Amino acid sequence: MTTSTVSPATPDTSAMAFDGRAFIGGQRVNARDGQTFDCLSPVDGRLLTQVARCGEADIDAAVAAGRAAFEDRRWAGKSPAQRKRVMLKFADLIQANAEVLALTETLDMGKPVKYSRAVDVNSAANCIRWYGEAVDKVYDEIAPTPDTALALITREPVGVVGVIVPWNYPMIMASWKIAPALAVGNSVVLKPSEKSPLTALKLAELALEAGIPPGVFNVVPGYGPEAGSPLALHMDVDCIAFTGSTRVGKQIHVMAGQSNLKRAWTELGGKSPNIVFADCPNLDLAVEAAVGSIFFNQGESCNAPSRLFVEASIKDAFLEKALKLVPQYQPGNPLDKSTVMGAIVDKVQMDTVLRYIASGRQEGAALLAGGEQARTDSGGYYVQPTIFDGVRPDMTIAREEIFGPVLSVLSFTDTAEVVRQANSSVYGLQAAVWTRDINKAHGVARALRAGTVHVNQYDEDDITVPFGGYKQSGVGRDKSLHAFDKYTETKTTWIRIDSPL
What pTM value is reported for the model? Predict the structure, then answer.
């Protein structure tokens, strides 16, 4: 393993220490059976710490802590305004610990530290703050009944919420779920991915410091079959919220049905189509968005626009511009503040990406850029930014989610046909349309089966808009006020009125 050179742009992280113990009932604890697993950095392969390898007994303890906290109403019993003040302090503490959180995220997951700081930390804090601010501004209802009745329609927290999040955006994915769940008064048991568990554990400490009572927010690291499955199957968990692969998401729904029929909310995979018409209003912007969005976060994004459809008459010009941008996305040291593409999360995922690249070659796609492992002397896991042309819709790289920096380019001449091809995927998370024709933009956007359709941009975002997909991209929506619906029960209270008049 080669030790990275420390420069003014590369912080020295050699002295950083990490606590890998679980967080249950307001305390750091080892797994009940004492087992741990190695937490290795994809940056350079170093051992960061030993993490508690939690199992069913630990999930039972965390759920029991959450249930006790919910039943005695130490958090649910507070007014929305009281919970709001604590949530705002929680967000402030995330910002106050931004540098540590950003470095931890980068070392644990491999993304460039410039994005860990500017995107992940800020987005997590903003999400916690937004739901804290929103919770005392959401009104209940009175139904328009006859004068002989008063019908109240109120929201109540569901109880204990199980949350399972992926490794690609550990803080953001956690905050999208825990923020609305906590804001309305639930208890939460969070299982982070075993590939990147460290910032979730730090968030639990900050939540306690902010004033969220012990037992309300618990974090239990571990492997999916050993910790995730017991959480999804637990008879005392009222709701399970999951982000991850479609394969595991289907299992989550089965487990919810096999247990107590808990509500299950899943945000799953994607193979998002990015459609560029010849009348695109700004070709340079379309190129920058196509390249930047697929290589952002090393392509490890469920909404990455991995299928690029370019109208045939402009394809050559588009690709010429795209290939000129590729060099700036060559992987660098993620701790260097100038790096824009970092490390793949681990060797398993790197090997998966390289196998997909090999399948693209074998099935006849034309490799225009990349295609190889990079920074092989670093001890970490890096893949070159990769572009394939001549991709057919039936190729593996055009159908399956790669979760790496691999762009598949397809050409088209007919609008109806490109919409058909775009919709042919089992996924339906996001899509994009580039055209100056407002009628075409509206028509194609309506025809695309996706939870979000971008027009003349890609991946512009805000906490106020819902995020989720159609088809096998999952059910339910993260973000926006709609997320409150996932973590609350709707109760009708019907009061008969015998009028004295």
Answer: 0.96
